[in-house]
Amino acid sequence: MSDAPRWKQDFPILWDEDHYVTRRELAKFLTLGSGTIVAATVGVAAIGDRLRPQGKMEPMRIEGADTLERGGSLLFRYPTGADPCILLRLADGRLAAYSQVCTHLSCAVVHEPAADELYCPCHEGHFDCADGRPTAGPPTRRLPRVLLAETARGVFALGVEV
Amino acid sequence: MSELAFFIDYSRCIGCRACVQACEECDTHRGRSLIHLEPIGGGDSVQTAPQVCMHCKDPICARVCPADAIKQTPDGVTQSALKPRCIGCSNCVLACPFGVPKYDGEADQMMKCDYCYDRTSSGKRPMCATVCPSQALAFTTLEEIERTRRGVAINRWVFGGETVETKVFVVVPKHAREVRPDLVQIGRRESFDVAEMLEGV
Hints:
The complex is a heterodimer of chains A (162) and B (201). Chain A is α+β, with helices and mostly antiparallel strands and 162 residues long. The radius of gyration of chain A is 27 Å and the shape is elongated. Chain A folds into two domains: 46 residues; 102 residues, Rieske [2Fe-2S] iron-sulphur domain (Rieske Iron-sulfur Protein), CATH 2.102.10. In chain A, strand 9 and strand 10 form a beta hairpin. Chain B contains seven helices and eight strands; from the N terminus they run βαββααββααβαββα. In chain B, 19% of the residues lie in helices and 20% in strands. Chain B has 201 residues and is of the alpha+beta class. In chain B, strand 4 and strand 5 form a beta hairpin. In chain B, the strands form three sheets. A four-stranded mixed sheet of chain B has the order 6-1-8-7. The chains are: A alpha+beta (162), B alpha+beta (201).
C-alpha cells in the first residue's frame, strides 16, 4: 500500500485497507475537531477575561433611592452607563437591587409590584424580588445582585455580585 | 486437506437452472439471481454453462471503479458494489473479462455474485453449489475434485496479453495449464460441446 501513489492509497481495493482509511479519517477529524474546540474555548475565555473590568468598582450614589416608597422600583445604571440595574424597596422596607439583564437571553426585566416579582416579558421569566432567584420560566441563573449601603448621605451601590 | 474452494465443471452442467433459483432465494438479494446460466451456441445446442464471479486475485472491476465501491476481502472474495458508493457507471460491467457484473437499472447500481459471502465466511457452501444436482458447481477441496473428476482444476486464464488468476477454479481436460478463451471457437463448428471445445485449450 505504501508504494502506491497517494490517490491510490485513499481508494484501496482491499476491504481492510478501506476500513483503515475510514477509521484514520475519523480519528483525524476527531483529533483536529477536539483541538479546534479546545483552542476556541481557551481563546474565548482569554478574551472574556481581558474585557472584564479590572479592580474594585467605585461606589456610586443612587439618586432618588432614599425617597423610594415600599413596593416601588427605580432604574439606574451601575457600574457603567451600559449596565442597566433596578432598585426595589421591598414590602418589609429593605432595599434590593439587581441587574436588569435577564439571565436567559438578556432582555430587560421589569418590576411587577402586584405579584411582588421581577418579570421578563420576552419569554415569561419570573424572578423572586427578595433574592433574585428565578421562580418560573426559562431562566436558570439568578440575577446579578448589586451590593448596597444605606447611609445618612443616601443609598450607595458598592459592587455587583454575579 | 486443503481449504474449501469453488469449482466449476462446465461439462457437467445440465441446464436445470437450480443454481439460478437458489441464488434468487438468498436474503441479501432476494428475487434477483446473480449467477448467469449461459446457453452455449444459441439455439443449436442445449449445452449451458454456469457463470459465477471468478473472484480474480487482482480484481479489474475494482480497479476501474471510479466510485471506490468494489472491495476485496482478505480471503480474496470480491464483493458486490457497496450500495452507498456505486454510481451505476457500468465501468466494471465493461471491464470484467468474464461478463459477471451486471447493471441493475431499477436499483441504479451494479450487482454481482459475492461468493455467498454471508454463508462461505461462516463455513457454509454457496447457495448454487448446495443445490447443483450434477455438481457442475462444487464447493469442496482440491483433493476431492482430483479424486472424483477426470479433468484438472485450474485458475489461470489468458485473455490475449493479459493473464488473470482467479479464486474460483474450472475443471478442464488434464493437459491444460491455463484457459485461453480466444482459442475456443464458437459458431464455426457443427456441434457445440464444451468439453470438446476445451480439448483445444
